[in-house]
Amino acid sequence: MFDVAQTVGKPMPAPQPPAVLLGADAGLWKPLAHLVDEHGYELRRSPELGEVQGWTDHRHRVVSVRPDIEGAQATAVLAHELAHIRADHEHRQISRAQRETEAESAAHVVLTAQGLDTSALAVPYIAGWSRGDPKVIAEAAETVHKVAARMLADIERFVDKAEPGASAPAVRRRRRSDLDRRTSTTAPAPRTGPAPSL
After folding, report:
1. Rounded CA gap, 113 and 90, in Å?
2. Cα distances (Å, whole numbers) of residue 166 to 49, 94, 185
């Protein structure tokens, strides 16, 4: 251990507070809530202390999203918690950093594909938990791909029931293909400090 007085140079920048997403849920809260229910989990809006915005209790089959957030922010938290379930974090023996990287990455892919950009929240969160470690990110990639693909397919099932007709799915397919083009040309985001766990 050492004291900060023993160091030289500019002070380290303070970690940025986590972003708060503004706006509506893009019609995604209900489909995500249905999927949580299909897995046998009860969805609660439980008050939390500090910065915790949501959690999943596998033993008691509860997913909680704090009640004082709403719209896009609450939907992003719910997608993150559902991704924990879908990635089988109850049974897989992996590090907390790996679990959080997988869950937030999958949620980000799903929500962005559905037209809800969560970059301001997801990028610092993923960078913080993965610490830019290529091994953590590489090991997460296959799980993220599988989980996101299944979540998108299941969301479409609920969207199709809620919005009959060909126009909504066509718009969503176009958004996903736009996302594929953006993903292939976007430079990696710079590493930032860790964000609090969702």
Report:
1. 26
2. 44, 41, 30
The residue count for the chain: 198
Nearest-angstrom CA–CA distance, 28 and 36: 12
Closest CA to 68 of 51, 85, 55, 82: 51
Nearest to 104 by CA among 174, 195, 39, 31: 195
CA 25 – CA 57 distance, rounded (Å): 24
- Amino acid letter for position 47: P
Give the largest CA-CA distance in the chain: 67
User: What gap in Å lies between CA 176 and CA 23, rounded to an integer?
Assistant: 21
Of the CA atoms within 13 Å of residue 103, those in its CB half-sphere come to 28
C-alpha Rg value of the chain to the nearest Å: 18
Point out which residues pair with 62 in neighbouring strands: 42, 57
Give the pLDDT score at 56.
97
- Sequence-distant (6+) residues with CB within 8 A of 41 are 56, 61, 62, 63, 85
Going by C-alpha positions, the residue among 53, 104, 48, 52 that lies closest to residue 74 is 53
pLDDT tens digits, residue range 100-132?
999 999 999 999 999 999 999 999 999 999 998
Q: What is the pLDDT of residues 132-166, one digit of tens each?
A: 888 889 999 999 999 999 999 999 988 755 544 43
